[in-house]
Amino acid sequence: MESLGKTHQKELDDDLSPKPITLSKYSNRVELKTLLERSDRGAGLVGKRLVIGGWVKSCRAVKKDSPPPPVVGDPSPSSGGDQSHTTANIRCTEIIQSKMNIFRRFFDVLSGGGGKTYPIFDKTELAGQKAPPPPEYVFYFLISDGSSVSSLQVVVDSALSTVPATQLMALGTCIVAEGVLRLPLAASTKHVIELEAEKLLHVGVVDPEKYPLSKKQLPLHMLRDYSHFRPRTTTVGSVTRVHSALTLASHTFLQYHGFLYVQVPVITTTRFGEMFRVTTLLGKTDNKEEKKPPVKEKDGFSIDTVKAAIKEKTRLIDHLKRSDSNREAVVAAVHDLKKTSDLASQLEMKQNSKSGTTLVKSEKLDFSKDFFGRDTYLTASGRFHLESYASALGKVYTFGPRFVADKIDNARHLAEMWNVETEMAFSELDDAMDCADEYFKFLCKYILENRQEDMKFISKRVDKTITTRLEATASSSLLRFSYTEAINLLQKATARKFETKPEWGVALTTEHLSYLTDEIYKGPVIIHSYPKVAKPFYVRLNDDKKTVAAFDLVVPKVGVVITGSQNEERFEVLNARIGEFGFTREKFEWYLDLRRHGTVKHSGISLSMEHMLLFATGLPDIKDAIPFPRSWGNANN
After folding, report:
1. Which Gene3D superfamilies does UniProt cross-reference here (predicted)?
2. Which pLDDT tens digit goes with each residue over 411-421?
């Protein structure tokens, strides 16, 4: 099992051997990780001709015959741009942001662009005299293609470009270049190799006035408004590659240990807890009354006018976020937008009341006429359906989205999260805890061994202690203790005041779990044998009749990463538990059938991939651990 964590490093041992550069599959370009993640950082490839493609992270222009510029700085974590300063060279962001006419004219002349504000020729040429040729420059780009945290310096002669220099040098511009790898000419550069471009095969320009990453470094919480662009930032790019590694590691671990991958439905008829209903009935009405005109307020404003104002104020907020406006200005604009949105809601309510339109309660809908002919919901767990396959195939797992309709908005909760779930026949609670323990530590070890460059960057930019914490976790044994023992420990903390008093029978809160992992044990723990009222009805009832065979794997700073349980295999007990929770047995008949016919002891686990990513990277908010976060009141993109 130890060798599994090193599967993607073997080729690096042969980096210095002479062999052709591997092209990106399904493309004629070379991925930058092929060059920059070698043990020699690409030095053995000097003189090779190749094509690379990527996006501009930073850029400098140097007049020909001048010394090459100093090293281009590391890209900033959330802007995707260069944050180093120099007085001898022209920075990309300085050119874009500059309002000085002389720079605008200079770059229009340099690129041959037909600027409307400034003529290309000066007065001497208009008088019949030959104007001096525009100066020739060399551009030094820092290019990233997303395959690695490292970027490649690409040297481009201004004569190669037909695009105006202000567009070519803008952050976010996509460039595909063909050239030859060489050693950097600048003695002070930190780059081992650079590409001297001979052709520009493609230039995908951006609009610097609208592109959000070109203006200023944005904090992670503001980047959520631009979730379609944020993977271009260095931090989100690294987090995404770690996320991908965790997914691959999950499949690797489970497949190695004999689990079969099974797809389970996202739409389910089984409901427990707060779930999203799936229906096509809403909006359908038999009301054939004549449509009435929109309601107007006394001041003459209609709902359409207010909605138009909302759009304009939304654009203003976007502009303020992209510009150098202070936080107070943004907050004031957001507050103004909220007031306008509230007014729109009031007008809509009045309009609906006039037209007879009302909200339809679910109990008044006839779901027999719905798409599926019955009540359906977005699933909150895949383990229910996995049990049927575990009862035939032994060990199975799945990986997919899970949905919870709790109206909670905090740094640890999402409405949609992706879970890795397993189910094992002939398995009990201790077996499930062993599986969770080994799986969790394997993930920690895997990313340390296979995403070294990204973890170095994350350790530098996000959490300086993350590598040490992961190493300690991967090599240690996780302490296990019961819920009752946890309550006793919390009750002994007399100097600590908890919002929820720790008494037997109450659910352990985030505050309780944080105290146990962050302050008492200072590391991950497994808590098992919870009160039966604190866990779902299908968890196996213990012999004491008060607790059930369930556990949580809890980690510092994050909370619960893995939940697990031995589920009830006894028909009579499960049937009684369904009644205790007040559920309709009819919807659980198929689930009870698994106990009627060939029942077997079984257990399983469920890992929240987003919570695991928080622990693996040190990110403070779960909304930055998923590409497109869905939470209460938010579903952008």
Report:
1. Bira Bifunctional Protein, Domain 2
2. 999 999 999 99
